[in-house]
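Record type: monomer structure entry
Structure origin: computed from sequence
Chain ID: A
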Amino acid sequence: MAIQVVAEQEFLVGAPSVLEGRAPGGSFAAVFEDDGDTGYFYALDANEQASPLQDAVHIYNVANVSDRAKPVCAVIGWSIDNRKAVLLLNDHPHAIFDFDKKRGYCRTGFPPPKPESEWSIDGHAWSETAIELFE
């Protein structure tokens, strides 16, 4: 997986934290947030001033993470073309955003698509082929 690492942080699951990773070129950003109850990954576009938030995918529920006392290394990386973002937790891909296809992928497949959104109209189901976006 060829990525440009733009943000990296160690954290404990359930300890509120935010990690933001802006694409090295362009207006896109991706943000990972653990609010103490859940982990989410967000796709943002600074050019969309009315609503920069484009999509959001669920990563985990804190209560369901059995080894939450162990530190986790979160990494946000971007494809070479600055149009795809990936969230790695302990070097394992958990979520991907493809800004060209307006599609988010996550291992939980949650949440369902929003009827009024142009993003992820087919849902957020994980696909191993999404990793190929970074080759």
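Annotation 1: The longest strand covers residues 53-61.
Annotation 2: The chain has a mean pLDDT of 96.
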